[in-house]
Amino acid sequence: MRLNERSQLPLVAGISLRYALTYAVLMLLGALFLIPFLWMLSVSLQDAQGMFALPFRWIPDRPRWENYGAALSAVPFGRYLFNTSVITASVLCLTLFSCTLVAYGFSRLRFPGRDMLFAVCISTMMLPGQVTMIPLYMAYARLGWVDTYLPLIVPSLFGSPFYIFLLRQFFLTIFREYDEAALLDGAGRLRIYWSIVLPLARPAIATVTLFCFIGTWNDFFGPLIYLNSPEKATLTLGLNMLKSQVIGSGSVQWHILMAASVLVMLPNIIVFFLAQKQFIRGIQIGGLRG
Amino acid sequence: MTRRAQCLAAAALVLAGCSSGDRKPEVEYNCPANALEIEVLQREITRFEADSGIRIKLNPFSGQDKLYAMMAAGKAPDIFYTSSTMRDRLAAEDRILDLRTVSKGDPLPGRLWPHVILNGTSVDGGWYSLGNWEFTCGVYYRKDLFREAGLSPPDSSWTWDDMVSLARKLTRPPGPDGRGGRYGIFIGSHFVEALELMNGADIPREMLLLRIPAESADLYRRYVALMDEGIMPDLLRMQAMGMQPAQLLENGKVAMLVEAVPNQSLIEAMTAPWGVAPLPRFPGKKPAYFRSASGGLSLSASTRDPGAAWKALKWIVTEASTYQPNPVLRDVDFTGGWEKRYPQLLGSGFRQVWDLSLEHNGGDPRFFVRFSSWTSGPILERLQPLLDQVWARKKPVDSLLAAIPAINSEVRREIAVTSATMTMKPEFREKIEQALKEMHDHSAF
């Protein structure tokens, strides 16, 4: 029997048994996490009774693609998609701008009280959203921002502690010698930020982009609290409108709801696959240095 | 005045005239509507606006957190849904209007069932919410399974013992492959409370402290015995499987099922032949059928035009088609309307179940309704884990009874703090303190 030179474990078809086992476990876990998604996909292609069938049929006899058409027409999907895209794009741009700048300051500049400020910034992560919800709502109401997108977008201009932390950790891994060389060449701090740090921090930026995109796209609570007009709703509110009824005993068209859920999830999946490589690198490196 | 200035003044007058003529009262209605209902409501709102001159702005995104935030910011919607757990508090804090003040001279209160007004009445005698929906409950059964077993379907005279006996006969053990088994009956734990009433338990409204009458304890033991005997599925297993009750009946996993009447999703999901019977009676006990009373629509105390808000509320309850036919109205043929919408209800027993619940209205004994809104939270956070253990058959019913004094002692402390610290109208504070005093020496607590 051939053995792997390093681990001395047997090789199966030229592959180390250790790797084969690792991949088998990972594939099993991956499949486990995929089950809810596959279930949703399967229900979205069945009729109204499909979800209740026992035993559950994973592959429908005749896929009902028309459920997707029904989902698109059950709520003003295009309108909600546009609203969600506007909010997500705005939040993404402002978050990246503010968080990279603050993280750059915390990682590259030396000033009195820097570490304490960073600790204060990080500690705001401990504040549950419920604590700040009413004071924030009152402030936004006073500004006349309720039932507009401003309460959902403007706060991202002030950074998010988690993203700042993630970016700072990554920025710390970039050699300071680059900065020093640029300073000698006459570059200012903002030039270094723009021309050296940001291009080198692409994996971390991709990670933040992905987290921020998914968080904003899927946000339900923020739009629920601040929006009142049906025409301003986001996709998550639209999904909820498919579910809720004026009268409690009303029936829910689960197959249509699942089709709509798949449609709402699609951009998340696409963005994840596009940013996958950078995202994994960002997570790996961002978590290395404290 | 120059000619130009005269022209400008005239134009300003015309503009001012236009804007004041268009200033209709606006009422914001916060309702948990789905997309279809919003579409229908929007269309009808336009007609209502043309007839009444009142604009209704629909805000379909609702939730308790949102409502409290809106209230704190002084932006409460004019009409919103209040559950029994929040209504008294909001009334005590003077955040919702006493509907008696706005409905003076209006014929609508006379068109409502008296219990509908009572359900929205708080301890100070004020009427704070108008129920916009009601339901009762009954035992749905599979006609074909009864026929197959040679059994007669239940009627209004059947008793708990009859139900148990039928359940035994309808129960089938699973085959060698573990499939094909059937349970005789399934009663969700939230319907046990309705059966406590049928067993003669005296459950008054607005209880401040926990009390479990002997009849309730007896019913709990009978309920657990159904699982012990294997004629009802285990509740924990049911929860783990995430089964929908309608799914159980449709698939023949159970032959009888206690559920809400009417239940739109069950009616639409069922393809097998089914009927519905009233809840079983208990020998020697007067029937007292469940009738829901958990919430309704309230008017915000900060509404700018209470008259317009009342008119809009009245229109929602009596005319908006999404709520019609409305069971809270006496002069409306509710059962006929539902039979017209769902012809499968004809001859199903629906009409009899409904009529009996009106004739012998036992009220709403659900745990979150039977306690006052000041104490339902503190009581339930202590009682519910114990109840769950009893239903899971990990603890005996007697452990519940033994826990009552400790629970009440903690709740009494909490309510005393609430009474001392909460800003509320004097009549509410007086009632709470009086109730606490009366209960202090009462043996039941």
Poorly predicted ranges of chain B (pLDDT <50, ≥5 residues)?
none
Shape of chain B: globular
In order across it, which strands form the biggest sheet of chain A? 1-2
CATH hierarchy class name of the largest domain in chain A: Mainly Alpha
- Strand tally of chain B is 10
The CATH topology of the largest domain in chain B comes to: D-Maltodextrin-Binding Protein, domain 2
Shape of chain A: flat
What is this entry, summarized?
The complex is a heterodimer of chains A (290) and B (445). Chain A is built from 13 helices and two strands; from the N terminus they run ββααααααααααααα.
3D architecture notes:
The complex is a heterodimer of chains A (290) and B (445). With 290 residues, chain A is mainly α. Chain A has two domains: 11-68, no CATH class; 73-174 and 204-286, MetI-like (MetI-like fold), CATH 1.10.3720. Helix content of chain A is 67%, strand content 1%. Chain A has a two-stranded antiparallel sheet. In chain A, helix 1 runs antiparallel to helix 13. The relative contact order of chain A is 0.13. Chain B is 49% helix and 11% strand. Chain B is built from 21 helices and ten strands. Chain B has helices at 3-21, 35-52, 64-72, 84-92, 99-102, 108-111, 114-119, 143-148, 160-170, 192-198, 214-229, 235-241, 245-250, 264-269, 306-318, 334-341, 350-359, 367-370, 376-391, 397-421, 426-440; strands at 26-30, 55-59, 79-83, 136-142, 183-187, 254-261, 274-277, 289-290, 295-299, 361-363. By secondary structure, chain B is of the alpha/beta class. The radius of gyration of chain B is 26 Å and the shape is globular. The model of chain B has no long low-confidence stretch (mean pLDDT 89). Classes of the chains: A mainly alpha (290), B alpha/beta (445).
